[in-house]
Amino acid sequence: MELNDRDLNLISALCGGLALDSRPYYVLGRAIGMDENEVVERLRALRQAGIIRRLGVIVRHHELGYKANAMVVWDVPDDEIAEIGRRLGACPEVSLCYRRPRRLPGWPYCLFTMIHGRDRAEVEASLAALAMREGVSHYPHEALFSTRRFKQCGARYIPKTAAE
Amino acid sequence: MAQLDAIDRHLLDDFQHDFPLDPRPYAAMAKRLGIAESEVLSRLERLRQKGTVSRVGAVIRPHAVGHSTLAAMAVPPDWLEHVAEMVSGYAEVNHNYQRDHRLNLWFVVAATGRDEVQAVLDDIARRTGLDVLDLPMVEQFHIDLGFGLRWN
User: Fold this and answer.
1) Are B47 and A60 within 8 A, CB to CB?
2) ipTM > 0.90?
3) φ, ψ of residue A86 in degrees (nearest 5)
4) pLDDT digits over B97-113, tens only?
5) Is residue B126 one of the residues assigned to a domain?
6) Per-residue pLDDT tens digits for A60-71
7) Which of B142, B143, B144, B150 to mutate: most A Cβ within 10 Å?
8) Crossing angle of the two packed helices B37-50 and B6-13, in degrees rounded to 10
9) Distance separating alpha carbons of residues B96 and B106, to the nearest angstrom
10) Does the residue B147 lie in any domain?
């Protein structure tokens, strides 16, 4: 799907979230000169094309009692990254699974997974179970627990047209 | 957690994905839950004020619009508070966490393009005199199903 300026404006306007108003698409459109119907139809198209991965209520894990999260990073051989990535990405314990570049020396890890739990012990137990079950415990890995959240909000992509 | 009733849980759990593309989406939610539209709105407002709900909105596919990266820094502990505050001050930074590792500050930078993201990383490196590790996503393996809530 080819995105035009109207799509980009819409995505940018949506970054702050939909209004808690009876007609949120009308409110959103009014801010960017788009009628309610066009907002709805464009959002539908963007969702169908997978540009919008999901549209809905976005919850915060921490406030729901999932106080612990670890970014677990893995150093696996290049030719196994895709296969192991797909397997770990499909695990119920894992909420995100990305391949990222190694930065040698010092950062050999190429696969990043996120594991949430009510506390640190629960995350550690999930990780141990997952590593055993998927046969990946022998690969070098580290669990980086978050100890403080300084900022968390939706990404704001500011289109060139709006920024200039 | 204790203050959430069954309707709150449905609001949090059932609409993470297929939010109604209906001119009155909250009314459509209300109908499914058997409550009034005004109650859906007041409950969501309360959940947002409590911080349980970040927003009703969209998760955009990485790199579909603009560019983003995950960045990491090893900040001397005494400076961490100050550097973290500086990093959070950029509108392009949307997540910023301390993690218990030598690389103790992790944040996501998102902007219109690669150059704009790079400019933020360069600026942070220049202002702090510290290295900023740039770890952009190369491939995504998980399917984003939102957050399945295990209530019991």
Assistant:
1) no
2) no
3) -65, -40
4) 999 999 999 999 988 88
5) yes
6) 877 777 889 999
7) B142
8) 80
9) 6
10) no
